[in-house]
Amino acid sequence: MKTFGYSIYTTSYGVGGVVSSNAGLVEVFLPFTGIGQPELKTEILRQYPSAVENRWYSLKAAEELQDYFAGGPADFRQPLDLDYLTRFGKAVSNHVAGIGAGVVRTYAQVAAAVGSPRAARAVGGVMAANRLPVIIPCHRVISSDGSLCGYSAPGGVATKRVLLELEGVMFTSSGSVKGSE
Q1: pTM for this prediction
Q2: 147 alpha-carbon distance from chain centroid
C-alpha cells in the first residue's frame, strides 16, 4: 500500500509544495498560485488525506525545487512514481525528464524520440496532464514554430516563459524561443 508524504517550499515566486509516495515523487505544486502556506497545506491534505509532513522523498525534492527557483542547478535526483501513466506516458515523461535546463525540444521531437513520430499531439496531452512540473520539465517542450503554446500549470504560458527565462532561454521580440524560428 502506498503511503504519502509532503513538504512545503518557499521561493521568491511564492509558496510551493511537493508530494511523494514511498515509491517516488507524485506531484509538484508550483509557487505561482498566490496562495499561502496554510492554504497550500490544506489543499495537499485534501488531495492526499493520509500524507505526513516531510516524509519519503518530499523533503529532499522541496529543497531541490527551492534551490532551482533561487537560480541553482536543475538536478532533480529523486525517483518518480509514474504508476498512473500509460506506457506511452511513461516513455514521454522519462524522455522529457532528461531534457537539460535551458534546452528546448518540440512536441514532434519528443514524439520521434519515443518512437511515435506522428504522436506530437499525444505528447502534448501527456505534458498537459504532467503532475510533476519542473521535475518533468514540460515547460521545455514547445511548438515546432518556437512558440510556447499551452501550459496547464498556474499562470499558463506566462509561467512557462518565466521558467525558461530562469534557465537562460532567450526569446525573440515576437515571443518565440530564440533560435527556433
Answers
A1: 0.94
A2: 18
Say if residues 154 and 134 touch (Cβ distance below 8 Å): no
Q: Exposed, middle or buried by CB within 10 Å (0-12, 13-18, 19+), for 108? A: middle
Task: For residue 129, give the nearest of 104, 105, 158, 153 by alpha carbon.
Answer: 153
What are the residue ranges of helices labelled H in 48-86? 58-69
In Å, how far from its chain's centre is CA 170? 20
Q: How far is CA 76 from CA 36, 37, 156, 163, in A?
A: 24, 23, 23, 15
- Cβ atoms of 149 and 108 within 8 Å: the answer is no
Rg (CA), the chain: 16
Q: Name 121's Cβ contacts closer than 8 Å, sequence gap at least 6.
A: 107
Packing angle between helix 120-128 and helix 87-97, nearest 10 degrees? 80
The 10s digit of each residue's pLDDT in 2-61 is 899 999 999 999 999 999 999 999 999 999 888 899 999 999 999 999 999 998 899 999
For the annotated catalytic residues, the residue numbers are 138
> For the purposes of burial, counting CB atoms within 10 Å of the CB of 15, is it exposed (0-12), middle (13-18) or buried (19 or more)?
buried
